[in-house]
Amino acid sequence: MMTHEPMASEGLGPGRTVGLSRVLVATDFSPHASCALERALQLPLREGAEILLVHVLKATVGGRDEEEEALARHALEESVLLTQEARARVVCKVRSLLVRGIPAESLTQAARDFGAELVVLGRPRHPSSLLARMRERLAGGLIESIPTALLIVGPPPVCPYQRPLVAVDFTEASRHALEAVLHLCPGVSRVAVLHDYDTSYALVLHQSGAQLSRILEYQREAKAQARAELQRFLAPYRDAGVYFDEIVRSGDATASILEIAQEEQADLVVVGRHLRLGLSRIVRPHTGPQVARESTCDVLILGQEAPHAAGT
């Protein structure tokens, strides 16, 4: 059984070798799943990389299992054939896998067995539908259990990512997220980096009867400290050949991320799997799943393991 390796790049500067070797794409043969496969083929892939297309059939008891399995295998084969044109541009192998079981559990196990660096999943555009809610529960289960990075794809992909946004809270998970952007978006010249800082002490000051001038002074100091911390956080990456647009906000982390993503017209939002920012540390401890549900663009959710250079 293969072991999982976290996403990483061999150096952060321009011209360095980057690329994924093993990408798992979950499919239910819907248009959303097709978008996920298209996006996977647009990611930076190493020569000889492998994409595993996985479909999970529910574990059932009955006489129609063989017919259902045959139809699913045929659909998988058709999906693989449709990638031939894209594979002419990228030297990679696409193969399929059909498994039975509970979707989140089966995909998690498949990712472990495959040694996936990244799992890609399509997100429905109509979250009010029953099927969409089922997919949302699947994505939520994967976010908590998947052993590696999870990319949730929304709109049909047009080109490689051009306008990434990274949310950071200065943890190792945040550093992993920033380095993942430099890995997945080797052609970008600008990355928006958002830190949502905590101003909850202002409420304590207000309740203790502090003067307005003291509260405003605290808020100014908190913002200045957040900017300084963000600059220190980004210091190791100043030679990466990328301009960092430094953004600091206070308040609800999810709302800030979604608002900035709209303002920046981001095509990719990247967060740590257990990112905790500002007041959301208390009222919304898991920012990643909330952003994945509400974002209109693609969302990459990463775990807390530190990245390291992938082997050649």
Automatic annotation (TrEMBL):
<dbReference type="Pfam" id="PF00582">
    <property type="entry name" value="Usp"/>
</dbReference>
<feature type="domain" description="UspA">
    <location>
        <begin position="161"/>
        <end position="301"/>
    </location>
</feature>
<dbReference type="InterPro" id="IPR006016">
    <property type="entry name" value="UspA"/>
</dbReference>
<comment type="subunit">
    <text>Homodimer.</text>
</comment>
<dbReference type="InterPro" id="IPR014729">
    <property type="entry name" value="Rossmann-like_a/b/a_fold"/>
</dbReference>
<keyword id="KW-0963">Cytoplasm</keyword>
<dbReference type="InterPro" id="IPR006015">
    <property type="entry name" value="Universal_stress_UspA"/>
</dbReference>
<dbReference type="GO" id="GO:0005737">
    <property type="term" value="C:cytoplasm"/>
</dbReference>
<feature type="domain" description="UspA">
    <location>
        <begin position="22"/>
        <end position="128"/>
    </location>
</feature>
<protein>
    <recommendedName>
        <fullName>UspA domain-containing protein</fullName>
    </recommendedName>
</protein>
<comment type="similarity">
    <text>Belongs to the universal stress protein A family.</text>
</comment>
